[in-house]
Write a structure and sequence with these properties.
The complex is a heterodimer.
Chain A: H1 3-8, H2 10-15, H3 24-32, H4 34-52, H5 60-76
Chain B: H1 2-23, H2 26-42, H3 53-72, H4 108-120, H5 124-135, H6 140-147, H7 151-173, H8 177-185
Helix pairs in contact in B: 1-2, 1-3, 2-3, 3-6, 4-7, 5-7, 6-7
Chain lengths: ~80, ~190
């Protein structure tokens, strides 16, 4: 298996439950290729970091203001 | 109206986040939240029960966000197909491993700045797919339906978005990076 072929399967590997064992040929490539192992682990970390950080929190005061504005507009419909 | 208020409270944070990711401007994101919920209310009778309300609402919010972007760019068309032909990120280049715990390298606020700056550098068509799929947790099928894209298009954009983000974050997170930066200052 080449790195390009491995990369084509990257999404499937990232999307599946980490507990599920990888297919034998993918697993073999990972064991032999440090670059692809790093690509997989750092891409997985990229997703985890974005998922765990609230980059655009909605503050309570703004939230209340938006609710009032939305409901006032809806009532006029 | 009380039932609709409940829906607003249930989904407002997600809509605000998605809008901010697309328009990258807080005032516009506030307007998108208001307009999206108002439009959804006006069109409630058109809502088909065959998709989730949330997916339908997100579709409205994404369209509103793209319209805002277009207005801000003085009428230039903005679509989710923009700049997606780039080859960047299709093959990893920076292959240095990351620090074992990259989040320990930076403070919370600095980390937030790095993540925002990095994702803002993606073309809108990649950014929105990554946000819906990986941040908001929509399925590939829901993301495709929400954006009016085919499933292969969503998968292709998602892979490229993930690889581009990974590549860009490597600058900050690779092994020894913080030490190098500190040594450079000395």
């Amino acid at each position: 298996m080449t790195c390009t072929e491995f990369l084509a399967q990257l999404d499937e590997m990232l999307d599946q439950d980490a507990a599920i064992p990888l297919r034998a040929d993918l697993q073999q490539h990972l064991e032999d290729c440090e670059h692809c192992e790093i690509t997989l682990s750092t891409t997985r970390k990229t997703i985890e970091i974005y998922r765990s950080h609230e980059l655009y929190a909605l503050p309570d005061d703004l939230r209340e203001r938006l609710h009032k504005a939305i409901l006032a507009k809806c009532k006029k419909c | 109206m009380a039932a609709y208020e409940k829906l607003v409270r249930q989904y407002d944070r997600q809509v605000f986040r998605i809008a901010q990711h697309i328009v990258q401007n807080r005032e516009d994101a506030e307007d998108v939240v208001q307009d999206a919920f108002l439009k959804a209310y006006e069109k409630l009778d058109q809502f088909q029960g065959n998709s989730k309300f949330y997916t339908w609402l997100v579709r409205i919010a994404v369209n509103e966000s793209l319209m805002r972007l277009r207005k801000r760019r003085t009428g230039r068309m903005v679509s989710i197909d923009e700049d997606v032909e780039t080859e960047e990120g299709s093959m990893p280049r920076d292959l240095a491993d990351w620090s074992p715990d990259p989040e320990a390298l930076y403070g919370q606020s600095e980390m937030g700045d790095i993540l925002r700056k990095t994702i803002q550098g993606l073309p809108p068509g990649f950014r929105v797919v990554f946000v819906l799929r990986d941040v908001e947790g929509l399925s590939t099928e829901e993301t495709a339906e929400t954006l009016g894209l085919s499933i292969p298009a969503v998968k292709s954009r998602l892979l490229r978005a993930r690889l581009q983000l990974r590549e860009r974050l490597s600058r900050y997170f690779k092994r020894g990076q913080k030490q190098q930066a500190q040594d450079g200052v000395k």
